[in-house]
User: Which sequence fits this backbone?
């Protein structure tokens, strides 16, 4: 029994280490610049939106399957552009069990214009991102 208890304890320690003790690990990306960069701040935007913008500018990896899919702009709330110009990305909502309502819409390839919606496309605000 003592041997079984040690085996189970070792297994739990391994699982906790692999799972990050229940905390979600930040995506790992390779970079030529090893120094960590501070994320830009955007007044009025949640910190999760800032993190999503950084992911978009790096080209991913994105945590949600639908991130990067074409945004149709069916309600014409954004400037008219050809189909495929706009892409949508999820801004995580703390405590939400699904993708939530918050999104960033990026236009262009590479992205050159950004919009934020907190209410699932009912309203948008442009995000000024320095080049």
Assistant:
């Amino acid at each position: 029994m003592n041997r079984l208890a040690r085996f189970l304890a070792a297994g739990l320690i391994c699982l906790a280490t692999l799972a990050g003790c229940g905390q979600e690990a930040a995506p790992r990306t390779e970079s030529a610049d090893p120094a960590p960069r501070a994320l830009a701040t955007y007044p009025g935007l949640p910190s999760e939106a800032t993190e999503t913008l950084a992911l978009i500018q790096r080209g991913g990896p994105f945590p949600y399957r639908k991130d990067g899919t074409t945004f149709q702009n069916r309600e014409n709330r954004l400037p008219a552009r050809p189909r495929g110009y706009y892409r949508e990305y999820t801004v995580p909502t703390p405590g939400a069990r699904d993708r939530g309502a918050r999104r960033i819409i990026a236009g262009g390839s590479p992205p050159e214009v950004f919009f934020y919606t907190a209410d699932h496309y009912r309203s948008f605000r442009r995000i000024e991102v320095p080049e």
Remarks:
- Helices lie at 2-19, 47-58.
- The chain has a mean pLDDT of 78.
- The beta strands are 69-70, 86-90, 103-107, 113-117, 125-127.
- The CA atoms of residues 55 and 61 lie 7 Å apart.
